[in-house]
Amino acid sequence: MSSAPRAGAGPDAAAPDLPAPLVSVVVPVRNEAPNIAPLVGEIEAALGAVPHEIVYVDDGSTDGTGDALAAARAAGAPLRWLRHRASCGQSAAVITGVKAARGRWIATLDGDGQNDPADIPRLLARAEAEAAAGRRTLVAGHRVNRKDSGVKRYTSRIANAIRSRLLRDATPDTGCGLKVFPRDLFLELPHFDHMHRFLPALTLRQGGQVVSEPVNHRPRVRGVSNYGTLDRLLVSIFDLVGMAWLQRRGRRPEIERDAAP
């Protein structure tokens, strides 16, 4: 079911020969050149005391995103990136980034600067506490004070209400791009187009746990959104049908004992 495309042979397609970081920050982008340097700087400031790497996936950008990524890496950021030859969507970019990541933990961020990297350490600490208690948990950001347009907030409320009723994923804001989760858990999930919208439901289907944490949300100040409002709502509702079907077909076997003689 994987929808991950073949990534182009970008400048950082191979992992550098360095110790694995604790957390990999995966950022999918398309035509976000003016947001690269500011966001990389904020990630670095937030995670200065945490072993980390930043993994950008350029989803077929046609602006100067590649040049901006090269400049950020030249400035010393622990930055790697891969490029899709053609745009394949946000979920495909996240899948590519997580597969390339080397950290035990994954933090995802939208590339438009609306998510605040300063929230990552708190979500990471919550995820580590859950792991210490023996739980594999996705920590989802909850934008309690969204800085989007009224139309976008309204359509999001509709989609969230329908999704919550059908999937019962115990998450008030699945659309928030800021999430922290174990890399190995993500790799066990079915991968398909638009899966990023259903990560909480997919995590529960896999036997994991989901918790939400309030996070900061900021207005977009650079660049232009790659998504429309109505088309995103219609696609989300259509995808819910497929996700509900998938959720009801999942079975997790319980291993009672080692069957080896």
Walk me through the structure.
This protein is an alpha/beta fold. The chain is 38% helix and 17% strand. It has an eight-stranded mixed β-sheet, sandwiched between helices. Helix 1 runs parallel beside helix 2 and helix 5 (150-167) runs parallel beside helix 8 (229-248). It is globular and about 50 Å long. The two termini are 35 Å apart. 41% of the residues are buried. This is Glycosyltransferase family 2 protein. InterPro entries: Glyco_trans_2-like, Glycosyltransferase_2, Nucleotide-diphossugar_trans. It holds the Pfam family Glycos_transf_2. Keywords: Cell membrane, Glycosyltransferase, Lipopolysaccharide biosynthesis, Membrane, Transferase, Transmembrane, Transmembrane helix.
What are its keywords?
Spore Coat Polysaccharide Biosynthesis Protein SpsA, Chain A; Glycosyltransferase family 2 protein; 8 helices; single chain; alpha/beta; 261 residues; eight-stranded mixed β-sheet; Glyco_trans_2-like; globular
How would the blueprint of this fold be written?
Blueprint: E1 7-8, E2 23-29, H1 33-46, E3 52-59, H2 65-74, E4 79-84, H3 90-100, E5 105-108, H4 120-132, E6 137-143, H5 150-167, E7 179-182, H6 183-188, H7 199-205, E8 209-215, H8 229-248
Parallel strand pairs: 2-3, 2-5, 3-4, 6-8
Antiparallel strand pairs: 1-4, 5-7, 6-7
Helix pairs in contact: 1-2, 5-8
Pfam families: Glycos_transf_2 (PF00535)
Protein name: Glycosyltransferase family 2 protein
Keywords: Cell membrane, Glycosyltransferase, Lipopolysaccharide biosynthesis, Membrane, Transferase, Transmembrane, Transmembrane helix
